Amino acid sequence: MTMIAEETFQRPVGELLRGWRERRRLSQLDLANQVDVSTRHVSFVENGRSKPSREMVLRLAEHLDVPLRDRNQLLLAGGYAPIYSEASLHSPAMLAIRRTLRRLLEAHAPFPALVVDRWWNIVESNAAAALFTEDVAPELLSAPINALRLTLHPDALGGRITNLAEIRASALGTLHRQIASTADPELQDLYDELRGYDVPGGERTPPGPTPEVVVPMRLRRGDRELSLLTTIATFGTPLDVTVSELMIEQFFPADDATAEYLKELF
After folding, report:
1. Inter-helix orientation angle 68-77/13-23, to 10°
2. Pfam family of this protein, just one (predicted)?
């Protein structure tokens, strides 16, 4: 990652901005209208004929919905200091964030809940999340545990999810959209790895339409089949890179039998 970051910083800021504009499928005219500048100015910035001010870099990044991590890279490429901090989750500055996460996780019990970072590595979880680490190959439980790898690997939940094709398609679709949004090479590597996993029966595509509004994850535990729905939440208006990339994934019972079973279990 360090080498990739250094290569990114060496690229001109205009080239990086053009890449983000094209990734968002905007024309120079579209972007110019959004930022309230001339198309000529956007063109000059992108081809290096005009050096954008710090404020212009940030305005363009805001309208291009560039992640905070990459906004710092744009500033560095433009010759400016980064403005978004990147504090460790375990630093004193993040105490309020850690407390908030812990309250959310504990309040969700007895149902599982996780906090993952940008790369889907689990950074926090509640006691009920132990449901997902039972009978998992030890090498998959070495820190950092990756939530998507844990879900799809055949030696993890991939061997216990009875509707794996549907869950696999949903997970890969989510990851593919995230890659399109961030252009993160680590996420691309993860996507390629997950796509290469064997699927029982050779099935790699989801079944046809179903009457369900949301597809639950159907997970075997002993002689039971649990049915779980999932939601993902993020922090609003973050100003720190680490906080902006955190995702809280909460699992809810999709039926009364699963709810009662989890209440007894945890």
Report:
1. 150
2. HTH_31
Inter-residue contact 103 to 251 (CB < 8 Å):
no
How many other C-beta atoms can be found within 10 angstroms of the C-beta atom of residue 74? 23
- Burial tier of 212 (Cβ tally within 10 Å: 0-12, 13-18, 19+): exposed
Q: Which residue has tokens 């209440």? A: 263
In sequence order, what E strands does 142-254 have?
217-221, 224-233, 247-253
Using omega within 30 degrees of 0 as the cis cutoff, is the peptide bond preceding 82 cis?
no
Calculate the CA 160 to chain-centre distance: 24
Nearest CA to 144 out of 126, 127, 128, 121 is that of: 121
Residue numbers of the chain with a pLDDT score lower than 50:
1-9
**200-219 residue pLDDT tens:** 655 555 555 555 567 899 99
Query: According to the model, what pLDDT value does residue 204 have?
Result: 53
Nearest to 72 by CA among 62, 82, 80, 81: 82
φ, ψ of residue 50 to 5 degrees: the values are -135, 130
With CA atoms as reference, report the closest residue to 12 among 62, 71, 69, 74: 74
How far apart CA 118 and CA 101 sit, in angstroms, is 16
Residue with the two structure tokens 């812990």:
102
The type of residue at 229 is L
Distance between CA atoms of residues 236 and 226, nearest Å:
32
| pTM above threshold 0.90 | no
Contact predicate 76/232, CB 8 Å: no
**How does pLDDT run across 24-62, given as a tens digit for each residue?**
999 999 999 999 999 999 999 999 999 999 999 999 999
**Of the candidates 63, 59, 5, which has an alpha carbon nearest to the alpha carbon of residue 30?**
63
